[in-house]
Amino acid sequence: MKIFSAALNIHDHNTYDGTFHNQIERHNRIKHNLNYEWSHDPGPSKKFFNEYVLEQFLKRNEDNLFAFTVSNLGQEFVSDLLDTYFPSKDFLKFKPKSLWEPYHNEYIYYIDHHQSHATYAFLNSGFPESDILAIDGRGWQFSCIFIDKQGNIKDLSKKIPIGGLWNRLAQDIGFKYLDAGKVMGLAGYGKYNYQTHAMIETYLMNPNHRLPEFAPQVLKNNKREDIAFTLQYVTIELIKKYVYPLKTCDNLCVAGGVAYNGYMNEEFTKHYENVFVPPAVGDEGQALGTYMHADYYLNGTIHKTNVFSGKKHDIDSNIFTGTNFEKWPEDKLLNTIAKEIANGKIVGWYQGKSESGNRALGNRSILADPRNPNIKDIINSKIKKREDFRPFAPSVLEEHYQEYFDTNQPSPYMSRIMPVKVDTVPGITHVDGTARIQTVNREFNKKYYDLINCFYKHTGIPMLLNTSFNCQEPIVESPEDALTTFKNTGLDILVIDDFIVRK
User: Fold this and answer.
1) What is the C-alpha separation between 339 and 345, in angstroms, rounded?
2) What is the CA radius of gyration of the chain?
3) Are residues 82 and 98 in the same domain?
4) 54 is in which domain, residue-wise?
5) Are residues 397 and 497 both part of a single domain?
6) CB burial readout 102-114, b (16+ within 10 A) else e
7) 420 exposed, middle or buried (CB, 10 Å; 0-12, 13-18, 19+)?
8) What is the DSSP letter of 112?
């Protein structure tokens, strides 16, 4: 049986057929797919996605299954598809009581939004058993669930309705909807504020989860970094109060958009022996989770997904026409690029298939020297074109991470934020003395590991500064995307497979 899966969300629409994870924004080049604004029609992006999913759906036969999940707001953007093929939409009333309870018939397979998150995390973890926390802004029947090691679902939506507040306050303090990540970065500059805490507590106690009447005054009179810090503080306190008492084993999987909160994820390591946060942890990974759930339930197969599951693009040297380029053997290339980075060059690094998720993990990365105290400002102003308070992450050789960072577990998918123990890498150290690290071993990504190791041999520092290869756009997908971003930004060098391009 061939399974085709799709996540029908307001943003981060994605599909999966068992081999290729298609995150739509990587191809239509629109951030968050729909570039959604509450007052605007998504227009051509909706049409693009509906046509793509419909094409795949119509290919079904007795050997094909269409598996999908949907979010509250996503339904309205795929209404034509749902109205045509599922006019009754009975499945949308489905509220599972366990992780493995689906809705399905002979040709469709539907699971809840948060089941998809949970399945993706758990089946990729390799844990024989695990607690699971799936938490985000809005799902379908839930916004936050806890699943014990037996698979029983406990609805925490009313107790921890924090995901939506991150996006709401992002707007209120000057950012856009879906800019919760910026709020987290800003939190490092702030301090606890009791007025903000009172505002959040009132929001949490309101059955409809509305900000109180005094909220505008609080937002006006207090620094946005203090608001961000207090929101982070309350988030962790809610976890301690409502999640920790439910613990049933030493393993924890975390999923959903709020699981991009690295401070929260590091807090979990103080209570659980093993914590797993997958790379495509938000809605962009839902097609993966939906596929895995269907494959396991129907076929008994644990189908682990590859981190690097994007489209493989063939590299034709003709695309470099008009540029200063060379093709080098791998050992010479790695040694040369490591030296260039050590000498202050900023490198666009493009290799193989793209990563699933929003974190660059060594195949679609911008790389620089973590020793340079000014490198954050340089990259933010010359390349990324983003706010100066946004930090950058280190990719560190796995065997060395505890020499530099105060944590007790590796972090292969850049999912946790922890204190930096040394003062020799200011380029990756946030204002609060922390970093969101990626630990890299050779099995995970051989070429990337070898590049970091070359830099280590030259400098004595076993890490590189790593940020996503983009400039206010989705992470580059194709070689042509990489070339365009290279030409339009302050990048010094571009590496595409074994080709080196210079300006």
Assistant:
1) 9
2) 22
3) yes
4) 2-127+280-299
5) yes
6) bbeeeebbbbbbb
7) buried
8) -
What is the distance between the alpha carbons of residues 214 and 49, in angstroms, rounded to a whole number?
Answer: 41
Q: What is the pLDDT along the chain (503 residues), one digit of tens a residue?
A: 789 898 988 778 888 988 889 888 887 787 765 544 433 444 555 666 667 777 766 665 556 788 989 887 667 666 777 777 777 788 888 899 999 999 988 778 999 999 999 999 999 999 999 999 999 988 888 999 999 999 999 999 999 999 999 989 999 999 987 889 999 999 999 999 999 999 999 999 998 889 999 999 999 999 999 999 999 999 999 999 999 999 999 999 999 999 999 999 999 999 999 999 999 999 999 999 999 999 999 999 999 999 999 988 999 999 999 999 999 999 999 999 999 999 999 999 999 999 999 999 999 999 999 999 999 999 999 999 999 999 999 999 999 999 999 999 999 999 999 999 999 999 999 999 999 999 999 999 999 999 999 999 999 999 999 999 999 899 999 999 999 999 999 999 999 999 999 99
Q: Are residues 241 and 287 in the same domain?
A: no
Distance CA 182, CA 171 (A): 11
For 460: left if phi > 0, alpha if psi spans -120 to 50, otherwise beta; the answer is: left
